[in-house]
């Protein structure tokens, strides 16, 4: 099949997040399908921005559309979204003529790309797929306090209802969304759950050496007999890193070193906290390239991931970094209250209440005081769980099977 994948924020291993579209598309190419990825040439989540124009990456045909740069979640980002959607709309006929897509996927986190995807799918007679990363507008309402009557929230709600009504297939990364989507008009027979995952070959080859500054700090911690607790990923409010720093303050007399690797909207403020509060056992480093992530995680005794306590997580969670932690065989400390918990499901670590520095500190201390062999057993349980349920070859086939069923239904009705 010819697959047109509209993902504003799509990346690649060389560019940075988002990785999921790349990994799914790469699997489809390996299966013999043709994939065109249409993305913006600027995204706040990428480590490096691509050149505007066309590029072929591992068999995937990328089209990078020119969009304005922005910072934060204000008007600049809205302009960036508008520029992307407007250009895809304008290119509809050209995209159809170039590829003749059988499947059109709207997958840009925000739901407004459903209108441009629907236009292309209807013109091409293609299967229309709506891929749900987060529930918009519910996510900005419940996570950021946006009013449901805010014009942007109302626009998202309109797009969301359009998507559930008109898409032939809805793919959700979140596992507990059936009732919510049905309340917004979705026929749940269209729904398939495809969570985030990992690419097995990323973990089979010798990993890239860890950057020297990070490796040197870990070596110093080891020489002091410290347990190393790590975090790798985005530094935004949803990542709840303030509570980790609060827990580190409670544990400042314990032989524990914290290593934070990443960037994001909250990074400067968080790093300032380290200085202001003299959290001298907590260390921040700039993001490391994805090929070095396995090397970094291999150095950890415990990997941390946390969340805010907000109602939106009742629909489930699907964090990329948790899949990496578990695949690396790390014992995980998970501060969460959600509709699902892969750490509990897998036995890959310990889960505690979110937004509770004391609970996080107690959990970290419990894992730190475990014999090394017991932490290794937890890590291996997590790895086995990911290998069984969260590898991209498995997930890509599940995603495509839903598209193929919808396509066969369309062909049957046409006959």
From TrEMBL:
Domain Glycosyltransferase subfamily 4-like N-terminal: 16-197
SUPFAM superfamilies in alphabetical order: UDP-Glycosyltransferase/glycogen phosphorylase (SSF53756)
Pfam families: Glyco_trans_1_4, Glyco_trans_4_4
Keywords, in A-Z order: Transferase
UniProt GO MF annotations: glycosyltransferase activity
Protein name: Glycosyl transferase
Origin species: Vitreoscilla filiformis
Lineage: Bacteria, Pseudomonadati, Pseudomonadota, Betaproteobacteria, Neisseriales
């Amino acid at each position: 099949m010819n697959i047109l994948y509209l993902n504003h924020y799509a990346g690649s291993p060389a560019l940075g997040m988002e990785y999921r579209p790349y990994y799914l598309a790469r699997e489809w190419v390996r299966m013999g399908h043709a994939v065109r990825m249409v993305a913006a040439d600027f995204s706040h989540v990428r480590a490096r921005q691509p050149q505007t124009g066309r590029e072929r990456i591992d068999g995937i045909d990328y089209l990078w559309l020119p969009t304005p740069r922005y910072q934060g979640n204000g008007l600049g980002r809205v302009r960036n979204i508008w520029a992307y959607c407007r250009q895809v709309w304008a290119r509809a006929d050209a995209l159809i003529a170039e590829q003749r897509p059988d499947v059109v996927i709207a997958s840009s986190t925000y739901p407004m790309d459903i209108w441009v995807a629907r236009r292309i799918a209807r013109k091409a007679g293609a299967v229309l797929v709506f891929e749900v990363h987060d529930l918009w507008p519910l996510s900005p309402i419940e996570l950021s306090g946006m009013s449901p009557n805010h014009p942007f929230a109302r626009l998202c709600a309109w797009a969301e209802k359009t998507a559930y009504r008109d898409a032939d297939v809805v793919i959700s990364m979140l596992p507990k969304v059936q009732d919510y989507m049905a309340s917004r008009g979705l026929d749940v027979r269209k729904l398939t759950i495809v969570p985030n995952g990992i690419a097995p070959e990323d973990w089979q080859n010798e990993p890239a050496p860890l950057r020297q500054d990070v490796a040197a700090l870990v070596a110093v911690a080891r020489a002091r007999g410290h347990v190393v607790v790590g975090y790798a990923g985005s530094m935004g409010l949803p990542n709840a890193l303030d509570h980790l720093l609060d827990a580190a303050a409670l544990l400042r007399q314990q032989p524990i070193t914290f290593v934070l690797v990443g960037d994001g909207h909250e990074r400067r403020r968080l790093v300032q906290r380290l200085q202001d509060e003299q959290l001298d056992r907590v260390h921040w480093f700039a993001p490391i390239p994805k090929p070095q992530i396995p090397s970094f995680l291999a150095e950890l005794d415990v990997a941390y991931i946390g969340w805010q306590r907000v109602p939106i997580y009742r629909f489930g969670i699907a964090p990329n970094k948790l899949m990496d932690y578990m695949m690396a065989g790390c014992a995980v400390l998970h501060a969460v209250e959600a509709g699902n918990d892969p750490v509990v499901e897998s036995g890959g670590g310990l889960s505690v209440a979110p937004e509770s520095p004391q609970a996080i500190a107690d959990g970290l201390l419990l894992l730190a005081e475990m014999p090394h062999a017991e932490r290794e057993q937890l890590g291996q349980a997590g790895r086995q769980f990911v290998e069984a349920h969260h590898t991209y070859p498995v997930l890509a086939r599940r995603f495509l099977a839903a598209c193929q069923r919808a396509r066969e239904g369309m062909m049957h009705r046409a006959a």
